[in-house]
Amino acid sequence: MSSKEVSQSNRPANTAFKQQRLKAWEPILTPAPVIITFIVIGIIFIPIGAVMLNASNQVQEYSKRYDDICDVGNTTCNISIEVPKDMDAPVYMYYRLENFYQNHRRYVKSRNDNQLRGEVVTSYDQLQDCEPYKSVGDSHDPNFFYLPCGLIAKSMFNDSFTVRQSGAVVPLQKEGIAWSSDKEKKFKNPPPDTVGVRIIPDFEDEDFIVWMRTAGLPDFKKLYRIINTDVKKGSIDLEIKANYPVRSFDGKKYVVFSTTTWIGGKNPFLGYAYIVVGVVCFLQGIVFLIKHKVAPRKLGDPKYLEWNK
């Protein structure tokens, strides 16, 4: 091999780092640390899971399906939800949809973030992600571009609710239902003179921002309003104007009232997961301990290792 070929060789330099000769520590797992690790994980995880489960069980959540009661149209309908005990403020009001696949790939992609940030989009090619809802008649003329384009905006939930208790209207707070990061950075209105066919009047509307944050599962709920007064035990009366059709995709609509705790809303899964993992680890550690005491396995003698010869 010529000197030129040697200089161009890709062989790493003969150093301890590049030739992987640095000193390293490789622990050998003996029964004692393994048993201790399993038992300690169990002791830690079981109480954590119990605390999480208790926090989830303290959440009060009441819901009622109404799509089978309220027909879509211009009329309003009335339903009631029984609350067995007082709900301390703040109480969160949600709408819930079943069998609505917001996580479908084509649906999730069907939006134009430049439009949503308030930028003026004049090129038809920039709207390709909004397929199949880009413009009127698939026109290339910016005067016929949808503002905003895409299936997500087109399918925005638009049922409206009025809440009463004991005959008095319950005030509902809209401000604060959307993420502050979304309001501040992702959604801005375009200039007033922007041409196009307006689908959503206000891009900064928090109902719209909440809807645009797509759900990962076909059964989901989204925050509708916040009630900053205590909801007393008894009946919650709702007047609903049903505008959103769900029968075409065999969907269901619910209205949900819920409190929260430090862990959030009602979700016992995480608590059960910690408890199950903790119990399994603890039992496995006990089984290994019994096995180690009853019929211990003789450990290998390090003197027979190759590098000790």
UniProtKB/TrEMBL annotation:
<keyword id="KW-0472">Membrane</keyword>
<dbReference type="InterPro" id="IPR005045">
    <property type="entry name" value="CDC50/LEM3_fam"/>
</dbReference>
<dbReference type="GO" id="GO:0005886">
    <property type="term" value="C:plasma membrane"/>
</dbReference>
<protein>
    <recommendedName>
        <fullName>Cell cycle control protein</fullName>
    </recommendedName>
</protein>
<feature type="transmembrane region" description="Helical">
    <location>
        <begin position="269"/>
        <end position="290"/>
    </location>
</feature>
<keyword id="KW-1133">Transmembrane helix</keyword>
<dbReference type="Pfam" id="PF03381">
    <property type="entry name" value="CDC50"/>
</dbReference>
<keyword id="KW-0812">Transmembrane</keyword>
<comment type="similarity">
    <text>Belongs to the CDC50/LEM3 family.</text>
</comment>
<dbReference type="GO" id="GO:0005794">
    <property type="term" value="C:Golgi apparatus"/>
</dbReference>
<feature type="transmembrane region" description="Helical">
    <location>
        <begin position="28"/>
        <end position="53"/>
    </location>
</feature>
<dbReference type="GO" id="GO:0005783">
    <property type="term" value="C:endoplasmic reticulum"/>
</dbReference>
